[in-house]
Amino acid sequence: MGAIFPVSLLAIWEILSRMEILSADGFSRPSRWIPALGRGLADGSLLVQTSQTFAAAAEALAIAAAAGIALGALFGLFRPLERAAQLTVDALRPIPSVALIPLSLLVFGFTREMSAAVAAFACFWPILLVTAAAVRGVDARLLEVGRMLGFPVAKIIVKFALPAALPGILVGIRVAAAIAIVVTVTTEIVANPRGLGHAMTTAAETLQPDVVWATLAWIGVVGWLANFGLERLGRR
Fold it and tell me: What domains does the chain contain, in order, with CATH numbers?
């Protein structure tokens, strides 16, 4: 049933385009996207661009998850540490990730790491906040068992806190995964001449609206598949 709305929307779009109510310059009809998408897949260019974009997004998500889960677990277990870092977190979190593009360009140049660094900054905050909240909600008696067994703090986090908080943490990771894709494509549109974002910009500059819309639709499909995979992983 979830396909009813997008299929209906595309059908209406096609009809309005054929009736010339929608401009062909900006709103290429859906029936032209498929050939454009097929050409990109056939010559391999779309697959290369997809690997560039999603490799940077995956790297960003991995960096953000490693840092956000580790620091969030500490914040969740030690409230004084969280209060001490609150000012820093509140000051850094509102900074738009795209504002870091010039700095990231200076450090990494036109590379995958440039996009990954900017996206990792954006992904870090939801993972940090969700992890801290999830760990804070773990039953205190469970953590007390670890202390009674004489486990060090690191082992209590790994053996008790994180497994109990994992369902909540995975929600934060799913949210961050979508952010990683959005920010990575944004960096490619704005500054980084690689990946799907750059392909859309190039197609727009050369007046190929069918390629722009085909690439945009492809990003949505691959992003949906990534979210589907994370959701199934979370259930498992």
Answer: 47-235 (1.10.3720.10)
174's CB contacts (< 8 A; 6+ apart) are 227, 230, 231, 234
pLDDT tens digits, one per residue of 144-194: 888 888 888 788 888 888 888 888 888 889 899 999 999 999 999 988 888
Q: Which two tokens stand for residue 35?
A: 């050939």
**The residue count for the chain:** 236
pTM (2 decimals)? 0.84
Confidence of residue 207 (pLDDT cuts 50, 70, 90): confident
